[in-house]
Amino acid sequence: MQLKKINEHIAAYKKYLQKGGERTERLLYKWESQKIWQENWDVEAHPFSEMYDRCLENSKTRRIWNKEQYQPKKMMFAFAELQPHFVYSMFQELFNENKDIGNRLDRFIFYCDELLKEYKAAHPNSIHNNHYHDYAMISHYLAFQFPDQYTPYRQDLFYNTLKQIASRDLSLGDDVARHFKVMKTLYQFLKKDEAVMRLHQKRLEGLHYQGDSLLLMEDFSSFLLTSTR
Question: Which of 213, 185, 189, 188 is nearest to 200 (CA)?
Fold first, then answer.
């Protein structure tokens, strides 16, 4: 990555925020969901399904976990009703920061694959043939649980961000671990610009998560995508 390119994009993003940032502002609802998750996630809660249901809420939209042909919350809720202790252990492993993040992601998907088989056996007439837990959804769990460590993953956003900062490696394959690493690095550059952070904080209301959050990097990456088309 090139420092000159990074600074140029941060300067452009700052001007964009000064003008209101209407296009990227549509992502602010994620700060609300992050706050709700932080307030409701409880490792001691029983039943797990009810706690999980409370964690994923939003007053504006539910598009993260519920849209046409994409219903990860519904399926995880079904899994939690089917195997509550196992689902709880899945999240424990996903959130275990002592383990490799790439392995955690892949194991979580594997567990969902296995639970889907069990669910289909118990509900042979179900129309659901997918658990919908892709890297995007799992990265939201991580971003909500660890606001200052992870940001949601979208391959197109990540690829374009790498392109805009002149990265030498523009691999088209999924590399979520690298995504997290790059976004954490870029976030440190953004944090150094006090005007950017002040303008961003001004957008947040009481219903939004107010702490240090890498959700800002999804907003920044979305800006790069729309501004460079």
Answer: 213
